[in-house]
Structure formats: structure tokens, C-alpha cells
Amino acid sequence: MRNLVITRRYKTSDNAIKQGFNKSCCFILDKNGQLLIYDWTNSKLLQCSNLNSLALEDKAEIDPVDITQIQYVPEMDFIFLAGTDGTFFQTRDPVFREGNYTELFKCEQGIERFAVSPDCRRVCILTKQRTLLVLTLPELECLVVHSLSTVEEDIASYTGSTVWRNDSRYFAVNVPDFTDKGSPKRQIHVYDEDGILYSKSQLDEFEILNDLLAWQPSGGLLAVFGKSPHGNAIIFLELNGLKRSHLQLGHTKPIENVSWNSASDILCLQTSSEVELWTRSNYVWMLKKTFSNSSCQTVRYCSWDAELSFRFQIVYDTACEIYDLAFSYTSGFSAGSAMTVSWNGVQIYCTPFRDNSAPPPYGFLQANVDSSIVEVLVTEFWDGFLCITLKGIVLFRREDLALTIVDQISFPHTFLSSEVDGWIWPNFNTLCCSCNGILQTTYLNFKLGTEENSSNDNRTCADTQFVDEDQVNNVHSLRLFPLIADIQKIGTNEILIETRNNFLIQFNLQSKVVKTVLSTRDFSLSNCTIHTMKLEDKIIIFLHNPTTRQLFISSSEHYSSEPLKISGDCASIYVFGDSVALTTLTSLEIFNKFLVLEVLQHLADGNDLDAMKLLVEKKFTRKVEKGSVIVTCCVNRMLEPSLILQILPRGNVETICPRPLLISTIRSTLRNETNEARYEKIMNAVRRHRLDYKVLIDEMRVIENENPAASLKHSLKTMVDQVKDSHSLVLLVTDLDEEHEDCITIIKDLLEPHLQKASVRKLNIEEAYLASLAKLGLLEEALLSHLIQGEDKDQRNVVTHRVKFLSYYCNNQDILFDTSLGTYDLGLASLVADCLGKDPKEYVPILEELNQFPDFKRKFKIDDKLRRYSKAITNLIRDQSTHNPEVLKYMERHRLFTDAISCIEELLATSSIEESKQEDCPESHRNRDQLKTLLCESKLSYGRYLEEHTKFREAMILYREGNQLDQAIECGIKCGQWEIALDIFHSRTFTKPDLKALCEHILDDLEDRKNYSGAARVCEVYLKDISRAVGYWIRAHKWVRARSLSHLLDKTEEDMVLPKLMEAGSERLEHLATLTQEVSQHFRRWQVVKENKAKRELEGGVDDFDNFSDTDSMTSYTSTRSGSSASGKSHRTAKSKRKHEKKLYSMKEGSVHEDLGIVAHLWTTFDKIQQELKPDTSELITSLWEFNENKLAKELGLVFDQLLIESDTAIKKIWAFVLPDELIEMKYRIPPIGWCTTWDKLCLHDPSSKAMKQ
């Protein structure tokens, strides 16, 4: 199924060597892949090198030695030669100068053929007397002397040959066998490395015709030229001499040379006038390429590169050509169907994969042409393919089960198709190719019709144009690629051209506009196959090297950047729409355009590692058979993309349908508005492949963002109108979740009009509507709809089906029954229970019991049963037969305080209860007095509940509304709202002793809270006790206020403020000095510990031991627990956690994590300085200045400044960077929030201020 294509052609000019090559010339390929030609007749050594400008150059003069055979061993870089007189030479000098070669020995019998083993340890020689010699190298010890024939008179008439296997363990000899009477028959003898006979060929119906012998590099087969009962053939023998298979030739030309490429997958056959390349697929040999010279010169030599399996050389009489080859699948879309074409000489095998998946290499459709096939082109705008042969163009159409020739066009005599590469068919009337490195476009006028009235063998394509060479950057050895944005696009005028200077350019065939797509210096395009994807105004380029299996990506937006390697194990790649599929050794990988754009964005930002990480995480991966490669991808009429894989080397075909490709097809089809049945096909495809329907909705949102006119509602409406079977809508709604609630709502609204059209009602439309209600949680609305209750009694089966359908969206059937019961319609509940098949013994007694209660009581019972407590308390309050204690008990049990209070207040706000009793249902409502009493009791109950849960402020408000003032005052004091408590106290009648007792109670509470300012205000305002007020203001450090009140006291008590202020300043000064010393000490200790840790890390030690001893104070910083740790959850209790933190933050000298303990302690100290000490110290210093205590104020400010400086120095060192240690808490990894060295100080304290200088 695979074909061979030429990716590069290197050619010397015709008649490059005027005298030509004769039969005495010897050809070898050196280790660098350069062709060396020894012309012994003219004593010349020629070299064919420099692939970019291939030419034959005179390398040097050589000695005029008469040489019969030359062999180059690339593994050891030795050249071995045999002279006509039996002399055997060895050299490393390719020039073969005199003195630079060694004569190893001279065979008296002469040397007819020799072969040196690849490891240069053995040489086998076939003498002219038909004797086999095996010698060791370099010792030249003779291991075997074996006579191959005893008939001396016939020896000169037959030649022999010998060849080694690549592992140097066996060699084979092709010699005639004279044991039988008559003409001798050739046999293949296989010997081991010591010359011991291993096997002889056994051919019954086959005959070996000459001395050709080629051993497959993989070591499996020996190829010889022979004859079968049906004509000439290449016979393949195994190591044991048995025939494995044969290749039947279609001509009688004698084969002069047989050779394999280094990968053992291409066989070359050389005749005197042409070279054939054969490949094997599923044990069938197929002719893929035929090479011949345009001047009909004789083929002198052909060979494969020793290392590069894709490089092939041919030498003609006066010219040399080098080809780079690659395996490729000739496939494409033909009239909406994927088609793959392979060929064998003049036979074409065509497989349209939509209709049939025939195993390779035989196709479902076959045809023949009149000359060797050069190329076959399959395009989306023609239901068939175009075949290019050596003579002309043949256009085939696929009709039913046959291929019909629609048109034939002959090439002009001046046009040599064998010299042309890179054929593409971008649009119906245009063919493009590369002729001698120049872009050539041929405009064809096809006459489409039947074979009888449109086929014309004499018509030639004369309308040919050559694009100016300068117009496409001096194109040489170019390749052409059609640039198609979408698989459904019909033709294109955009092509890509690879230029000689490693450029990839975009060329418009009509406007002749040239645009650079890729420009790279270090990256070689010559060894890569190129695949493109067009996304908006960007061209994404994928470069695949089949030899190294590497895949690179680039973009026209950043054409000067080097391509990024995205895979090192890519066997094949295929671009399908906006997705890319590739195969590795054992897996299939797919990534879509969104992932490609993200990767390219990372590349543009220089984040290559992030791009590769993103690609690995988000790409789709699926296991496939080992050796799978992508043939093509087809999409059938049901939108099913099928990826065709061929498993090599067996050749069998596998078809898979990856979901990412299905998503790509859906994405493309959604945008094709001309297809009026697109949603029907999409829904069916999604349903068949069990794809999540959310993908469809998400893509609709993308379309809405791209085109606001195509709103989500519009897309959903089109979908509802086009889908015939609404069961697909049911599945769609079922797959949607809470994030798509708006979509479900739109679908529900769109389905409602269809329910009214009974005559044109769609299939399963009712289920789709009920499903949308169920997904929105509107089960009650669904049960009350006319679909359940509006049907006639004779439609009971329909109702039963719909009720059961609704039950599918419930976790169990009881949910639907409870929902029907929640409608308070006992008849509906009975209907639902019956449809669900519930046992009447279970639900009938319940319904009968409920039916006995009054209206509100029955509703209360139902709500209570369904645990709808909010509705239950409402109906219980409305029921007049229920007493207040029962309501309060139910309210307290289920904590329905706010619901009950809201319901009562709503009833009180309505019209008069008495009027309601007379007009509505007097037996079911309470009067206004009852409601007021119930409201007051409800608030008091709620207040008690809040007080129990320490919500004193809310409880105070409820107690006050419930007229329980004592409890309200007590709750006000407990929550610190003593002003409100006093306000409530003043709202009733009281005596002075009562007020004093309340104030003393408040003072006790404020002292417990250390709210001395509040206590001072109580004494000053309410108790009128100035002396106690002054004392509280002093304790609150409100010195100015205390001093102003002290003037109202006696002289003995007036002077009490200043001594207290001085005492507070002295205590603060001592505290700041101590704190400064402590910060400095801990910081120095932290530096020592960090230095010790750094030294141990440099010495390779482990940081799990004491700093001062060999004994650890902590064996480990993690706790050990028994049992399985698979869950990863911590089972540490609160007590053990505190113990663990205490050990972790221990500041004991020498402990394991002493540095962490110091950091945590300093962080707490600095945070306290910032949050507490700064405002308190600033206020204290200000008061000292105001009391004219300048000395103490200045001294205190200087000490505090020193503390801030020491602290800031430590912070900058410790938290220079975020601490990386994961053991410490997150808050300790950064400095305290809001830290700064500035503080609110008076300018009197600033030494630089003018006030201080004065």
C-alpha cells in the first residue's frame, strides 16, 4: 500500500564526463557517502560530491594498475583490490598512490572474485581454477582450501561470486555445479566464518541464471537472479538453502546487479538501460520506481548509501544521479470519500475506504496503464484520481465497482516526465511540478465525459508556464505542497514551495504573490516530509523526519524561528482538518488546533519547556499495534471519521475512530450552514460514539464568541428544528449539568411550541420536554403539566410511561412519589404511585390518613413527612386548631424561628382576621390577639436560643421586642453594649439604688474586659464619682483626660497623674531596652545556626542532628503512624499537633530546627511591635512631651528607634527571600504584613527638626 516518492534529486549535467565510463571503471562509496570512481584506463580517480551542486571532479591521478575487483569496507575504512595477476592489495588511501598501499599476498591461481568480511577478519577468495580459499586477516593464515569443480575444460566458461553476511558469521558462494551430466546448474553454497560448509541451495523448478548474489543486510534472505516456470525472477533463499519466495519479473531483460538498502525494505534491480526499485507488502513484491536516463545511456553502476537507507546513487555513461527516497501513502479525499492508491509497475490498486477496507496490497478497484507510473494524485474535487506515467497523464473516474479512463493527455516530446518531481494537483485545471529545479505549471482543459467521447491519446498538454526563477527565491530541487485550509474546500490556488536556500514560501498561482512561511539556517528541510495546517491567517508547519522519527513544529507567524521538536518517536503523521494525528512505536497521539495555538504561543514567548509540558499533558493518547503507521482518514456520510492504520511489516490494515477526530469533524460541520441536516447527522454521530453532548454545547458557545449573530439560542433553535428524533435531545439534556442550566432552559422554551402542534409533533418530543423540566429540578411542574394530568383515561399507558420516564432522573422512585405528594394533590400522588408500581399496602393507608385532616393540617402533615419544615411551620401556624405551645415546640425542635416570625408578621400585616373568617375559611385561621401572643412568645423563644449560643446582642434585641427588659439588659452587658443596656434601663421606672447597682455590675464586667475607658465614662457620667473616673483614665493611659478631671479633686488627689505617667514611661523604657537586647541576641544566634547548616550541606551531611552534639534532640520532624498511608490523610490529634509544633519551633540550642523556632519567635515579636508597641509608645511619648517630661520622652524615643533599627536589620536578612522550608507555617515564610520603621512621632523628637535645634 505504500509507495516510493523522490524527496530530493541531485544530478550532474549531461555529458559531465565527455569520455564516459567504461567497463573497466570501479565504483565505491566511502564512509561519507561520496562516490569514488576509479577509471583504470585513463588513470583517473573521480569524485562525485557536494549534493547542492552535484558534479564530477578529478580527484587525483592513480597508478595504472590492472585491477579486476575493488572492495571498500566502511566499518574499518579499508580498500581491498585484486589485480589480474592474482595480487591482493590493502590500503586506506583512496588515491591509491604508490607506497600507500600494501601487497598482502599473490595467488598463483589468480583471483576471480574475493570478499572481505565486514569486520576485516576474514577474506574468501574464488580463484580462476574454481578453488575456494578462506584466509584470516591480517595473519593471512589459510583456513580452508576447497575445490569447487573438477571439470577443467569448462571452468573458464562460467564465473562465480561470493558475498559475506553483515554480521561476518557466514558467507555465500554462487558457483556452477558440474556434478550432473549436461550443462551445469548454478548452486549457492553457504559457509561459516571458518570455511565449513553450512548448506546448499535446493531448487527444483527454479534455475539460477548468473553469478549475482546479494545478502539482505538484516541477514534473513539471499537474493539471486534466476528463472521460474513463468519467466525471469528474483529468487530469495534462506540460510539453510531453501527457497523462501520469489519475485516474478515482467520482462526478459537480464539483471546485472541486485542490491538492498541498509534497512532491508527496498530491493534494487539493475539492467543495462534502467534501474527498478521494488518493495514488499504482505509478502507481495511491487515495482514502485523505474529510473532511466533521458539520453538512453547505459547504467554503469547503482548502489545504496551504507548508512542512509533512503539515499540511492546511479551512474550512467556520462552522468551521475543521487536520489533521496521516502515511503509515502498516496491518499486523499475523493468526492467526500477517502481513497488510497498504490501501484505495481503499470498496475494500479485503488481502495475507497468508505465502501471497502480491502487488505493491502490489493485494492478494491484495479486498472492498468501503458507505461511505468511516476505519480498518482488524489484530490477532493474529483471522484477518482489522476495518474502520471512516463508517457503522459491518465484521468480515472471511480464508477460503481470499476475505474474508467475519462481522459488521456500525452506529454510533448521535449517534456521528460522522468526528470520531473513534486507533482501536485491544486485545482481541477492546473497541474504543478518541479522541472530541473524550476516551478512549472501546466493548465489543462479536461473534457469530462464518458470514455467513448472524451478519451484522446493524441492530445498533448501544450499550455505550459514556467515561473520566473527570481520570483521564487531561486528555487532548486524544490518540492511542492498544496495548501488547503479545510478538507471540504474544493481546490486552491495556494501552494508551498521549498527553495534551495532552506526557505519555505507560499506562492499564489493567480496573483504570483510570494510570502515567506519558514526560514531556517540550522534546520535542514531536505530530510523532512512537510505537512501543513491553515488556521485563520496562520500556517502551521509540521516537519517529520522519517529516518530519525523526529517531529518538529513551526508557524508562519514566527517564520524566522527555528522549529521546535515535539516528538522523538514519530512513525507517521496525518493532518485532518484542525487536528493532527501521529503514531509512535506503540501509541496514537492526537492534538487539536487549540493545543497547537497554545504551544505556539509558548514558543513565541520563549517558553519551550512550558510548551512541551503542555503538549504532554493535554494530548490524546491511545495504544495501537506496534509498527502502526497512518494511511489516511475517511469520513462517511454519518460523520464518522475512521483513521486507517497499517501495521508494518505485516501490512494488515486496522480501522479506528478516535473521538478527538470526531470532535474535529463536528466542529467543521457545525460551521457549514449550507448543510440543512447537519444537526441531525451530528446528533446521530455523537449518540453512536457515546460522546459527551457537552462538547456540542461548548462548541456552540465558541461559535457565538466568533460570530455574535450566531447566538446560542439561534444554534439551539436550529438544532431543535433539524433533529427529527427528539430522543437525541433527551440524551443531550441528560448529559448537561448545572453549568449548562441556561441551555436547558432555552431548550425547554423551544420545545413548548412543538407540544402544541399535535399534527406535526416530533417523535419523543414529550420526553425531551419532561427531561428538561427534570434536569432543572422542576419535577413538580412536570407532574402538574398537561402531559401527566391532561391525558384521557384511555391514555393510561402513555401517562405511565411518562411517569416512569421522570423517575429515571430521580435517585429512587420515592423521590417522584414524594414530589407528587408535595403538590397536596392526593389524587396525583395515587396516580404516580400506581404508575410506579408501588405496593398499595404502603401508600393507600398514608393517603387515607392524610385525607381525614383539615386543609392546613393535612398540608402540615405532608410537609412534615417530606421534611419541608419551613412550609410545615407556615401551615401549622395557619391551622387554628393547633395551640401555641405545639407551634412553639415544633419551632424550637426544628429551629424555625425566623420562618415562624416572618409568617406571623405577614399574617398580621394582611387584612382583618375577622373578615377572613367570614369570607374564606373561619375554621382555619387565628385571630389577631392570638397571633400577637404567638409572635411575642416566638421572639422570646428565639432570644433564649440565641443567648444559649452566646449571641447576646441579637438576644438583647429580641428580649426587648418581647418586653423582657431584665434579660435584655443582662444580654446587653454580656455583649459589651453597656450604653444600650443603660438606655433600656432608663426606658422603665427605676430608683437611684437600682441605677447604682446596675452601674457597679457594668463596672465589674468592663474591668474583666479591661475596658478602662468605658469604666471611666460610667463613673464620670452615671455615678458622678470623679476620683474613680480619674483612676480608670490612668489605667487606660489617657493621661490628658485624667489630668483634666483631677483638677476637680482635692490637692492631695490632683498630683496622682504625673507620678503614674512617669512610672509607665520608666516601665516602657526598661521593656524596650530588654526587647532590643533579646532581638539582637536571637538574630545573632540565627546567623550562627544558618552558617552551621550551610557548612554541613557543603560537606554532604544530613541536616537531622544537633548543632553541638552527636545525639539528636529530635529523632524526626514527622510523626510515625501505623496502618496504611494510601489515603494520604493526617490522623494527628489536636494535642499531638500542638506537641509537634512545640518541638518544631523549639528554640533550644542545638535542636534540629532551632533556626525555624527563632524565625517563628522573631516573627511574633516583630508583629507585636508593629501592631501594639508602635501606637502605644507613640501615645506615651506624646503625653510625656505634653506633661513637660522632655528628658524621659526623648530617651524613650531614642530607645524605640534603636529597637526598630535592630528589628529592621534582622527582617532584611532573614526574609531577603521567601523562606523555602515547607516545614514552617506559611505566615512565617514572609515578614510581618505592614512592617516599616516609621512611626507616629512628634517633630520635637526628630534631631533634624528646627524645634530640636532651638
Automatic annotation (TrEMBL):
Subcellular localization: Cytoplasm; Nucleus
Gene Ontology terms, MF aspect: tRNA binding
Region described as Disordered: spans on this chain: 1116-1143
Residue intervals of the ELP1 three-helical bundle domain: 1055-1214
Main location: cytoplasm
A cellular component term, taken from the record's GO annotations: elongator holoenzyme complex
Listed Low complexity bias regions: 1116-1128
Domain ELP1 first N-terminal beta-propeller: 161-307
ELP1 alpha-solenoid domain span: 789-850
GO biological process, one term: tRNA wobble base 5-methoxycarbonylmethyl-2-thiouridinylation
Pfam families to which the protein is assigned, alphabetical: A-sol_ELP1, Beta-prop_ELP1_1st, HB_ELP1, TPR_ELP1
Record's keyword terms, sorted: Cytoplasm, Nucleus
Biased composition (Basic residues): 1129-1142
InterPro entries found in the cross-reference section: A-sol_ELP1, Beta-prop_ELP1_1st, Elp1, HB_ELP1, TPR_ELP1, WD40/YVTN_repeat-like_dom_sf
Transmembrane segments: none
Domain (ELP1 TPR) ranges: 858-1043
Family: Belongs to the ELP1/IKA1 family.
PANTHER family in alphabetical order: ELONGATOR COMPLEX PROTEIN 1
Function: Component of the elongator complex which is required for multiple tRNA modifications, including mcm5U (5-methoxycarbonylmethyl uridine), mcm5s2U (5-methoxycarbonylmethyl-2-thiouridine), and ncm5U (5-carbamoylmethyl uridine). The elongator complex catalyzes formation of carboxymethyluridine in the wobble base at position 34 in tRNAs.
Protein's name according to its UniProt entry: Elongator complex protein 1
